[in-house]
Automatic annotation (TrEMBL):
<feature type="domain" description="STAS">
    <location>
        <begin position="28"/>
        <end position="127"/>
    </location>
</feature>
<dbReference type="Pfam" id="PF01740">
    <property type="entry name" value="STAS"/>
</dbReference>
<dbReference type="InterPro" id="IPR002645">
    <property type="entry name" value="STAS_dom"/>
</dbReference>
<protein>
    <submittedName>
        <fullName>Sulfate transporter</fullName>
    </submittedName>
</protein>
<dbReference type="InterPro" id="IPR036513">
    <property type="entry name" value="STAS_dom_sf"/>
</dbReference>
Length: 141
């Protein structure tokens, strides 16, 4: 099975802070959006536009943030918005966080409401075999 990269964009707010976005479709109706570099308040709108742009085009979405070296807390709002939009459109999704993203998730998502996976392969397998029920609010136990 071949992977086709259908989109790439380089975002540079200045020479010191850059992010590179790309998308591939490893399976029909399944998008893998990858981000490399640094995400902060200066490029959060571009990150949001890019990631949210694939919600309506797919049935399953993996947001690969493994190569994100810095993840500002302001970017968490994009992940929350993505979760809400996916839930509203019946799209199953998962994200693969880097250490920088995991650090922010521990603070901003302590109950683990956002669907995370250790790798893109694991996320694809999870979405293929047993998609996680869509959840807007974590259940209290």
């Amino acid at each position: 099975m071949s992977t086709v990269i259908v989109a790439q964009r380089l975002v540079a707010s200045d020479s010191a802070q850059r992010a590179h976005f790309s998308t591939r479709w490893p399976q029909p109706k399944t998008a893998v959006v990858s981000v490399h570099g640094e995400l902060d308040a200066s490029n959060a709108p571009e990150f949001a536009d890019y990631a949210l742009g694939y919600v309506a085009r797919s049935q399953k979405l993996v947001l690969d943030l493994n190569a994100v070296e810095f993840f500002g807390a302001t970017c968490f709002a994009t992940l929350h918005t993505l979760n809400v939009q996916c839930a509203g459109e019946g799209i199953y999704w998962a994200l693969t966080p880097s250490k920088a993203v995991s650090r922010v998730l521990r603070i901003c998502d302590p109950d683990g409401a956002l669907p995370t996976s250790p790798s893109v392969a694991a996320a694809l397998a999870m979405l293929q075999t047993e998609p996680r029920p869509l959840q807007l609010v974590t259940e209290r136990r």
